[in-house]
Design brief:
heterodimer, A: 84 residues, Non-ribosomal Peptide Synthetase Peptidyl Carrier Protein, Chain A, B: 153 residues, alpha+beta, Thiol Ester Dehydrase, Chain A, 5 helices, 5 strands, 32% strand
């Protein structure tokens, strides 16, 4: 069961990589999505930051390698923002 | 030159969303001629008043890319300045620019990504009448630091 956050993340990946949203799965990765190179990873990070109004550290950016991990990281940041 | 660039090395920490900067340039015949020679774009629309007038313009139309050259100057020397490099840009040229026009090119930080050392910039150019002649979005990346500057000539 996908959450609204999961769906937003998958839609962003589909937009950035120019692929149908149906082709994005929770465990999709740079190995399974054509064109997920370093430049597109930068574009993905920028798109995520703008969509969710968050910032990622360089260490976090290295971990954003699947929709599942992205949604977890974004969810944690949004929770912290709500608490503040 | 290297020492002076290091002294003015821009830091992403000093920039925030909303920061803006403007560079003003008069579009001269000499600049259009020089750009035509540099680029090889000698399209008569840029080089000949009579041709441009026959095409329905008041005179020679400046190359749109001449404005982008001035934007390069803004990014590379002022805002953010040395320490950045221009990585991506979209443009829409909305109105023709003529010799004698005075153009204000403005860049504004739209998004700052500290983790990737990247700035997204909204860009626009207006003529002396306040008309929007060009706009777009750019991506500027910031270097962490210069290394080996002392060994440079």
């Amino acid at each position: 069961m996908k959450s609204p956050l999961d769906e937003r993340v998958q839609r962003i990946l589909a937009d950035v990589f120019g692929v149908p949203v149906e082709s994005i799965h929770p465990d999709s990765s740079p190995e399974t999505i054509e064109g997920w190179d370093s430049l597109q990873h930068l574009n993905l990070v920028l798109a995520l930051e703008q969509e969710f109004q968050v910032q990622f550290t360089p260490e976090e950016i290295e971990t954003l390698v699947s929709p599942e991990r992205i949604a977890t990281s974004v969810g944690q940041k949004m929770t912290v923002m709500e608490l503040n | 030159m290297i020492a002076s660039a290091v002294e003015r090395f821009a830091s992403i920490d000093d920039l925030v969303v909303g920061h803006t900067s403007v560079v003003r340039r008069e579009i001269t015949a000499a600049a259009v001629d020089a750009f035509a020679q540099l680029s090889g774009d000698v399209n008569p629309l840029h080089m000949s008043d009579s041709y441009a007038q026959a095409a329905g313009f008041s005179g020679r139309v400046a190359h749109g890319a001449l404005q982008t050259a001035y934007l390069s100057c803004l990014f590379g020397t002022q805002f953010p300045g040395p320490g950045c490099f221009w990585a991506r840009q979209t443009f829409e040229w909305r109105l023709p620019v003529f010799i004698g026009d005075v153009i204000d090119l403005q860049a504004t930080v739209k998004h700052k990504s500290a983790g990737t050392r990247t700035l997204l910039m909204s860009v626009e150019a207006r003529n002396q009448h306040g008309q929007l002649v060009m706009n777009g979005e750019g991506m500027v990346r910031m270097l962490a630091k210069l290394t080996g500057a002392g060994e440079q000539g």
